[in-house]
Amino acid sequence: MPAPVNPFKTALREGRFQLGLWVALASPYAAEVVSGSGYDWLLIDGEHGPNDIPLIAAQLQAILRSGSHPMVRLPCSEAWMIKQVLDIGAQTLLIPMVESVEQAKALVRAVRYPPHGIRGVGAALGRASNFSRIGDYLETANDEICLIVQIESRAGLAALDDIAALEGVDGLFIGPSDLAADMGYLGQPGHPAVTEAITDAFQRIAKAGKGRGIMTLDLGQAYLYRSLGADFMAIGTDVTLLVSATEKLRSDFLNGESGNAKPVSGY
After folding, report:
1. Cα–Cα distance between 56 and 70 in angstroms, integer?
2. Taking the model in full, what pTM does it have?
3. How many CA atoms lie within 13 A of 103 on its CB side?
4. Which of 3, 4, 12, 129 lies 20 to 30 Å (CA to CA) from residue 88?
5. Does residue 235 fall inside a structural domain?
6. Buried residues in 201-215 as b, exposed as e (16+ CB within 10 A)
């Protein structure tokens, strides 16, 4: 029995757009709730969300039965951390702040078993192999791992062509907020100069035949990025959606409160 097919990687290869959402509440229960909403992929955020390996594992389990594919963003590019998150069952990784082809090459090696990489051979202990019940896991795992590198600085843009040319890098994800900050436009991811840089990056990534990814909380920006050719895109986060929904509910009630308000059935 081979390693499970990675539907996100398959979609990228086939050119099918994949819509995603950030999951940063660090709650398996919240991840399960969100996973029923119909997104193609969900990003479990270990960089800015208060996550650790056991919490990430629990969220992977919570999303397992849904139609959404879990992607994991680690806080850094350390090989030992990549090894752990692969062994708990993650198949698609997003690694932040990639700025050189040397760093990207190290990441490719970190997600692959020898002789093509340095991933430790301990699959018998992990969920990834269904605790060694997947007999051909070691021989087939490399093909189903999807590596997405995050480009979010001027240095990353300068190295983009060499990074995109690497075998083993499946997609490049542009981080508009950090890129804007590095370009001198802190808090302005929609600045024309930033959009121009993203447009150019998308064109170069497409030329290399790799997936183009991005994230925004602004639907106007989302439509723009889609028109520019985004192959996979996140359009919100569980945290910001919870904030906006709870604040709107309170505001709607207080603004509509009057002696003529109709009674509401329910609790």
Report:
1. 10
2. 0.94
3. 17
4. 12
5. yes
6. bbebbeebebbbbbb
**Domain with 74 in it:** 7-254
Distance of CA 124 to the CA centre of its chain: 26
Does the residue 233 lie in any domain? Answer: yes
Q: Are 73 and 94 in contact (CB under 8 A)?
A: yes
Alpha-carbon dihedral 64, 65, 71, 75, rounded to 10 degrees = -40
Going by DSSP bridges, is the β-strand pair 69-73/211-215 parallel, antiparallel, or unpaired? unpaired
Out of 48, 69, 116, 191, which one is annotated catalytic?
A: 48
Q: If you compute the radius of gyration of the chain from its CA atoms, what whole number of angstroms results?
A: 20
CA-CA distance, 71 to 92, in Å (whole number)?
Answer: 5
Asked if 48 is an active-site residue, the reply is: yes
The answer to the question of residue 32 being in a domain is: yes
Single-letter amino acid code for the residue at 73? R
Within the chain, residue ranges assigned H as helices are 7-14, 28-35, 53-63, 79-87, 101-110, 137-144, 154-158, 160-164, 176-182, 192-207, 219-227, 238-256
- Per-residue pLDDT tens listing for the chain (267 residues): 899 999 999 999 999 999 999 999 999 999 999 999 999 999 999 999 999 999 999 999 999 989 999 999 999 999 999 999 999 999 999 999 999 999 999 999 999 999 999 999 988 899 999 999 999 999 999 999 999 999 999 999 999 999 999 999 999 999 999 999 999 999 999 999 999 999 999 999 999 999 999 999 999 999 999 999 999 999 999 999 999 999 999 999 999 975 555 555 555
| Tally of domains within the chain | 1
CATH number of the domain at 94, please.
Answer: 3.20.20.60
- Domain assignment present for residue 2? The answer is no
